[in-house]
Structure formats: C-alpha cells, structure tokens
Amino acid sequence: MKIILVLAGCVLMMAFVISTSDLAQAEEILGTGTESLIGGDLTDPEDDGAPDADEGYNAIFTANEEPGFGGGEFSFNVFDNRLGPSNDKWCCGRGGGIPEEGLHITAELEEAYILTHFTLSSANDVPARDPTVWEVQGSNDGETFTTIYAHDGDSVWTERLQVALFEAGTDFDAQDTGYKFFRHVTFDTASNPNGAYFQIGEIEYFGNAGLTPVDPKAKLTTTWGSIKNAR
After folding, report:
1. CATH code of the domain in which 121 resides
2. Within 13 A of 39's CA, how many CA atoms are on the CB side?
3. I need a surface site. Which of 119, 166, 198, 227 has the fewest CB within 10 A?
4. Cα 40 from chain centroid?
5. Can you give the pTM of this predicted structure?
6. In a domain, 5, yes or no
7. Measuring CA to CA, how many Å separate 10 from each of 14, 15, 19, 127, 185?
C-alpha cells in the first residue's frame, strides 16, 4: 500500500510540474539573435527598412517615450530587424518609474490586418529590465485600443536576445477583427521604478489583410512572413 501511495504521489507531482511549466512557457522560443527573427513582418514585408533614415517601412511609428531610431536606444529600434546591444534595442526609461498608461510603441499600417502571430524579443542585458506585465493591442482610429494579448507574470525569456513566438488560437484568442494600429505596452518590470528599468529587443507582427477573417482556402491573401528556421 505504501508503494502504491508513493507512486501515486510521484505521478501527481510530475503532472503538477509539467502543468505549471506549460503555463509559464506557453509561447514558442525560436532561438537567439537576429537570425532567429522570422522576418518579412507587416511593418517591413520586404526586409529593406533603413532605420537610420526611417525609410522603407510599411508603417508609421509613434511612441510615448524616446520616439525615433538610433541614438539613445530609442523606441523605434524594436522595428529595425536586428537584435543586439546599443542602438538595436529600446532602453531604458527616463527615471521616475513607468507611467500609469505604460510605455507604449505603435505601428500604424496602411490597411487593417487580423493578427495571426507576433514575436517579441529580449534585449542584451539585465533580465530585471524585461517586461513582466505587458499587452499587445489593436485599434482602427489610433485612440481606442482593444487588448489582443495580455501577459502578467515572470519574463517570458530565459536568455538574452531570445525570440519568443505567440500564435493566435494557441497563445491568444483567434482574432475576428482586423486593425490598422498595433501597439505594445509595458506596464511593469522587475526593476521598475528603480534605475534603468526597461528594455525590449524587437517586435514583429504578422496577419491577414482585411477587417474580417478570410476564407482559409484563399492563402494568396495571407501575409505570413518568411520563416527562416525550420520549426
């Protein structure tokens, strides 16, 4: 009887460990470094954006802190198609803590897209700066935003410059509305509000053109990006 009870306890413990691990890492990790980015996302389908000149992008970028590419580790660097230190990331906050409305960056597209998946990448240093409470939101007027994905917990990354993939129908609800504006908002990090309290490496958005879902057979109308790594 004791042996049976011990075995049962081990099975329950194993099940608990597996379930909690799945909850903590529901997203898929694609790898680390620039080569692990999918590429060809909605903001730059041709991968020919010139970040220093803010040219070649299929989106207009805005942010409520440090707008711009390049120097000062500005916010638009999350769309430069590169992962690395310095000007290849957005870091680190002006001090005084993250404001109530969060630190947000928005990509405005020429037409609406139904979000099918996105990637979010860690930056190069200090894991305590990683977002722990954050959202991806959509809008069609740039003023009223709807939450598409929300995270409230530990950092999703286990390494620096790591690319995490989030998919509709798996990590967030399959969408039935397209949006012209996609916004990432960070509300908290482990180091907030002290010191340099925030950083993101890269963001990629992918989706189907249109305000409503397309026929699944009409694959030619789908913008997926070109996946560089076999999955």
Report:
1. 2.60.120.260
2. 12
3. 227
4. 15
5. 0.82
6. no
7. 6, 9, 14, 33, 41
